[in-house]
TrEMBL record:
<keyword id="KW-0472">Membrane</keyword>
<keyword id="KW-0812">Transmembrane</keyword>
<keyword id="KW-0220">Diaminopimelate biosynthesis</keyword>
<comment type="subunit">
    <text>Homodimer.</text>
</comment>
<protein>
    <recommendedName>
        <fullName>aspartate-semialdehyde dehydrogenase</fullName>
        <ecNumber>1.2.1.11</ecNumber>
    </recommendedName>
</protein>
<dbReference type="InterPro" id="IPR005986">
    <property type="entry name" value="Asp_semialdehyde_DH_beta"/>
</dbReference>
<keyword id="KW-0486">Methionine biosynthesis</keyword>
<feature type="active site" description="Proton acceptor">
    <location>
        <position position="242"/>
    </location>
</feature>
<dbReference type="InterPro" id="IPR012280">
    <property type="entry name" value="Semialdhyde_DH_dimer_dom"/>
</dbReference>
<dbReference type="GO" id="GO:0009097">
    <property type="term" value="P:isoleucine biosynthetic process"/>
</dbReference>
<keyword id="KW-0521">NADP</keyword>
<dbReference type="GO" id="GO:0009086">
    <property type="term" value="P:methionine biosynthetic process"/>
</dbReference>
<dbReference type="GO" id="GO:0046983">
    <property type="term" value="F:protein dimerization activity"/>
</dbReference>
<comment type="similarity">
    <text>Belongs to the aspartate-semialdehyde dehydrogenase family.</text>
</comment>
<dbReference type="GO" id="GO:0009088">
    <property type="term" value="P:threonine biosynthetic process"/>
</dbReference>
<dbReference type="GO" id="GO:0004073">
    <property type="term" value="F:aspartate-semialdehyde dehydrogenase activity"/>
</dbReference>
<keyword id="KW-0560">Oxidoreductase</keyword>
Length: 390
């Protein structure tokens, strides 16, 4: 397979080179890898691991049209300008930017969850990194219990803002140690020794665009357009791997034991949950790992039997970008488009859920069911003489 990476010198692009190297046999063998970036990087020689040293070329449509798969890791405006044109010229395009994620015509894909939506697609969107990490841990729980609402708070690493974000945090940390003033250009304030509740631009509803991406994308990937989702996205001074506190309210009763078992069995998620030996997900352990770590699973004291709290941590440059993109290419190559079963709340659950929750909901469901059963047996008893006399 002939593969191209546009944006190969960036934070996501460099990870794409590494992931392709580690998994190259899965794509039926990568016979050609083309590295492309802006004019600034053209001519630079990059160590591409198993692919050897490769010279970076300046991007043009002509240079990618004979490839089979092209990964875009540049920017939304670049993708809007070129993605369709590249796809029309021949290759399948897997785009890491946010340009097409909300486009109803373009599949937004996490292969383990909704890979089937990528069937026959020439342009596929890779999800927002924050969303993808949470989705990996939530999907097995959603399939069993049905997630009715999700409340998320994030602790996002500097590398979420690209290679420049990482460099700025390192420079600010050095400046702080030397006692000099930190220089600020990527983030709104010094990030070193600080926490900034501002990721991406503010929207008219007071949420940031990053927070709204979690709302829009979780609904689209899970195929539940009316799921209640809210997020507070916060940048913290770690280099890599986002952490997220998740609270879910479920349609069906759930338990910590069952939730842990489901996470443990799920592909792409690792259960790290042993408070007695201080084991829980953390960025330093999740960094450079393919699996998302999930732990601190607790029965919610707000939603009782119908809710859980958990903490997840995942390398956003991998599961939230490079790894997920390569997994999409592998998924297309394997050509197995099975649709996974998702939880469907019953009409009664939805109806009652609008005004009731927890034990009250189940008491009411029981009462309605008992009334229906009594009415049925009354009607059946009443109708017997008529039918037997016919
Ligand atoms: N960082 C993350 O955690 C993350 C996660 C998920 C998705 N994403 C998305 O992935 C994309 C890349 O993010 P990043 O963090 O890797 O950014 P980055 O570190 O800033 O890298 C940007 C890359 O784009 C290249 N580029 C810029 N202008 C170009 C042009 N006109 N033609 C060709 N290449 C050009 C740059 O090449 P030069 O070096 O030549 O300038 C560089 O390789 C963005 O859309 C971002 O939103 C990022």
């Amino acid at each position: 397979m002939r593969v191209g990476i546009v944006g190969c010198t960036g934070a996501v692009g460099e990870e794409l080179v590494k992931v392709l190297g580690e998994r190259q046999d899965r794509l039926g063998g990568v016979t050609q890898l083309k590295l492309l970036a802006s004019a600034k990087s053209a001519g630079k020689v990059m160590d591409a691991g198993v692919f050897g040293p490769l010279t970076v070329e300046e991007f043009s449509i002509d240079k990618v049209k004979k490839l089979d798969v092209v990964f875009l890791a540049v920017s939304g405006s670049f993708s809007l300008k070129y993605a369709h044109e590249i796809a029309k010229s021949g290759p399948v395009v897997i785009d890491n930017s946010s340009a097409f994620r909300n486009d109803p015509e373009i599949p937004l894909v996490i292969p383990e969850i909704n890979g089937h939506t990528a069937k026959n697609a020439k342009l596929i969107a890779n999800p927002n990194c924050t969303t993808a990490i949470a989705a990996m841990a939530l999907w097995p729980l959603h399939q069993k219990f049905g997630i009715r609402s999700l409340i998320m708070s994030t602790y996002q690493a500097a590398s979420g803002a690209g290679a420049e974000g990482m460099a700025e945090l390192e420079a600010q940390t050095r400046a702080h140690v030397k006692g000099s003033a930190p220089e600020v250009s990527v983030f709104q304030y010094p990030l070193a020794f600080n926490v900034i509740p501002h990721v991406d631009s503010f929207q008219p509803n007071g949420y940031t665009r990053e927070e709204m991406k979690v709302v829009w994308e979780t609904r689209k990937i899970f195929g539940v357009p009316d799921m209640d989702v809210s997020c507070t996205a916060v940048r913290i001074p770690t280099l890599r791997a986002h952490a997220e506190a998740l609270t879910i309210q479920t349609w069906a009763p759930c338990s910590v034991e069952k939730a842990k078992a489901l996470i443990d069995e799920a592909v792409g998620v690792q259960l790290v949950d042993d408070p007695s030996s201080n084991k829980y997900p953390m960025p330093i352990n999740a960094t450079a790992k393919f699996d998302v770590e999930a732990g601190r699973v607790r029965q919610s004291i707000v939603f009782g039997d119908f809710g859980l709290d958990l903490f997840v941590c995942g390398d956003q440059l991998l599961r939230g970008a490079a790894l997920n993109a390569v997994l999409i290419a592998e998924f297309l190559h394997e050509d197995k488009f099975e649709k996974p079963s998702g939880y469907k709340p019953t009409v009664l659950q939805r109806f009652m859920g609008a005004s009731l929750s927890g034990p009250a909901l189940w008491f009411t469901v029981g009462a309605v069911a008992a009334t229906a059963a009594a009415a049925t047996s009354f009607l059946t008893a009443d109708s017997k003489p008529t039918s037997s006399s016919a």
